[in-house]
Amino acid sequence: xxxxxxxxxxxxxxxxxxxxxxxxxxxxxxxxxxxxxxxxxxxxxxxxxxxxxxxxxxxxxxxxxxxxxxxxxxxxxxxxxxxxxxxxxxxxxxxxxxxxxxxxxxxxxxxxxxxxxxxxxxxxxxxxxxxxxxxxxxxxxxxxxxxxxxxxxxxxxxxxxxxxxxxxxxxxxxxxxxxxxxxxxxxxxxxxxxxxxxxxxxxxxxxxxxxxxxxxxxxxxxxxxxxxxxxxxxxxxxxxxxxxxxxxxxxxxxxxxxxxxxxxxxxxxxxxxxxxxxxxxxxxxxxxxxxxxxxxxxxxxxxxxxxxxxxxxxxxxxxxxxxxxxxxxxxxxxxxxx
Length: 338
Ligand code: PLP
Ligand code: COI
Fold this sequence. Notes:
Elements: E1 19-25, E2 28-29, E3 33-35, H1 47-50, E4 54-56, E5 59-63, E6 69-72, H2 74-87, H3 95-108, E7 121-131, E8 142-152, E9 163-167, H4 184-188, H5 191-199, E10 204-208, E11 216-219, E12 223-228, E13 232-236, H6 245-256, E14 260-264, E15 274-281, E16 285-294, E17 297-300, H7 309-322, E18 333-337
Parallel strand pairs: 9-10, 9-16, 13-14
Antiparallel strand pairs: 1-2, 1-3, 1-8, 4-7, 5-6, 5-7, 6-18, 7-8, 10-11, 12-13, 12-15, 15-16, 16-17
Bound molecules: pyridoxal-5'-phosphate and 2-OXO-4-methylpentanoic acid.
């Protein structure tokens, strides 16, 4: 294992000890195994390569102060992985196999879990691809389920320092499309919009609803939330955004800390109602949003320099549970080893 600067991790790929691989062939899943490699060999006629028959998940393993290794709501990822697979006619990975793959690969790479107190985590990337020989537009004859991991720090540079976003005219998903599924095609559709935003100095872009372009959908790699002066935690309700596990957890945490939790339309021309805002997700954790620019106008929420008090409280509560510092009263964490 190479020397790792735990305190300065970004979100870059690095090879670790092992990956987990399982294969679906002739109507059944193999048991799956750890493999000391970071390459896979597949047919040039794989549907994943031509038609984007692919889905993935994003999770993290956390090192608690007493050395325990914790996962956060892994069954929710397993279920969402199945829902994504169903949407694009892939073979579903049984929940048990998903959890086995995740646990085995984390434990095999436990030396890569950043130490408690560094703020780093071990990012877990399960994915499912259609493989085998099939060039007609139809589901693949075989599937590969793989899980790999990499140590990570903040996704958006700055961690708890506010980041700015700009709205885009592009859509990442269609009204009846695949926005709710965590499939690669949604992310391919987001690359150009993301580049345009970054080229103008923004952390990422904000997508508006594909039907009317009047309501906030989500950020390229995270959901959106806003806090009103009346103590409401508001997050967009839309059939074309990803059902973020972090967002659902924050809806609960918001109630736990005395806010009113609401999923509702968030109109882009009514940002004045929010005194704070943030982007939330597994990779993003909570990134405070300093400002959103829309059609040449910039709306600053709490501050472009400092995180607001409610966003900070949400962040401290969420990460406190994830790292095992706070009581886990909803039973969200799963200890998988030391
Ligand atoms: N929205 C998008 C487009 C994402 O890629 C992610 C990341 O997974 C999220 C939202 C947040 O989802 P979760 O909290 O389940 O990680
Ligand atoms: C995650 O938060 O896990 C994501 O999948 C976001 C991104 C890195 C695609």
